[in-house]
Amino acid sequence: MGSPARAQGSDRPSLAFDRAPIPTPKRLPAQAFDIPLDAHLHTELSPDSGVPLELYCAEAAERGVREIAITDHLDFMPGAPAYRYSDYASRERMVRGAAERWAGRVTVRFGVELTYESRFEAEIREHLRTHSYDYSIGSVHDMSDGPYDTSRVASFVAGKTLAEVVAPYFAEVEMAIRSGLFDTIGHLDVIKRYLIRWFPAAEYAAIPEAYEPLLVALVQSGAALEVNASGLRHSVGETYPAPWVVARYRELGGRRVTVGSDSHLPHTFAFGLEEACEIVAAAGFDRLTLQRAVDRGDLALPERFRERTRSTR
């Protein structure tokens, strides 16, 4: 698949699902108004965020974001940043309390973002069996002892094609999906962020076959695909995953999709979700999903997204 450590962009295979690229919005991304949901938010109970939960609730009420999911990090590798950082009882008390205070104005869900590593799947499974959440995200991150850590990623990438470099990451993502543990899979290809120095985001369209097993697994599992807008404020400049991946998921029979800002700062609440919802609508979805295998009419996309989609066809 291409020459080592860069050239992928001009050799896109002529696979059956090649298609014209979906148009992406021309305006600059910003914090959204009047959307059904922001399903990925981090508060001061995550080690990499200091945002008070009340701020998100107030922002949601002001911006017309009707439902939010608080998804603070939970790691299972001893020594990882979110390993025993905050206890379950504290997180549940804080979020359930906010849900009561804001009832009637904003629906607040008690969620969690669990770092998935196949070596800790048994521990993750046991945690979810013994602890109750409204919503769970399973995400693969760049762990400190993995190949994508900043201390070793350069040597790992050297001499490899893009397909070879992403293979270990995508293998873990597929195992997360097939575990059946999560409502949604977070930032499917956030690996783009770790590798941007060597592989521009546009080059991933040259390896659609790397995504295919993940999308098939999502369809089969019933878990939702998250369109994570944080990439719009990162140097990659696109969502995780890109619009063409969301479209292919729909083509394969995908039925459930959600959106999240993945906010860790006050000014990134709902950031990029207008664009994320446009991508979802352009792929053929008319509503969002939160809990696994639950279809809710109240998470329907506002009419403006369907109108824009019709106007571009």
Description:
Mean pLDDT is 91; it is low at 1-21. The chain has one domain: Metal-dependent hydrolases (TIM Barrel), CATH 3.20.20. Helix 1 links the parallel strand 1 (35-41) and strand 2. The chain has helices at 53-63, 88-101, 121-130, 153-157, 162-178, 191-194, 208-221, 243-251, 273-282, 303-311, and strands at residues 35-41, 65-70, 73-74, 107-115, 135-139, 184-185, 224-228, 257-260. By secondary structure, the protein is an alpha/beta fold. 44% of the residues are buried.
List keywords for this structure.
313 residues, alpha/beta, TIM Barrel, 33% helix, 13% strand, disordered N terminus
Q: What order do the helices and strands follow? A: EHEEHEHEHHEHHEHEHH
Looking at CATH, which topology would you report?
Answer: TIM Barrel
Q: State mean pLDDT (0 to 100 scale).
A: 91
CATH class: Alpha Beta
Span between N and C termini?
A: 34 Å
Shape: globular
For the secondary structure, the number of strands is 8
Strand content: 5-15%
Short description:
This protein has ten helices and eight strands. It has 313 residues and is α/β, with parallel strands linked by helices.
SSE topology:
Elements: E1 35-41, H1 53-63, E2 65-70, E3 73-74, H2 88-101, E4 107-115, H3 121-130, E5 135-139, H4 153-157, H5 162-178, E6 184-185, H6 191-194, H7 208-221, E7 224-228, H8 243-251, E8 257-260, H9 273-282, H10 303-311
Parallel strand pairs: 1-2, 2-4, 3-4, 4-5, 5-6, 6-7, 7-8
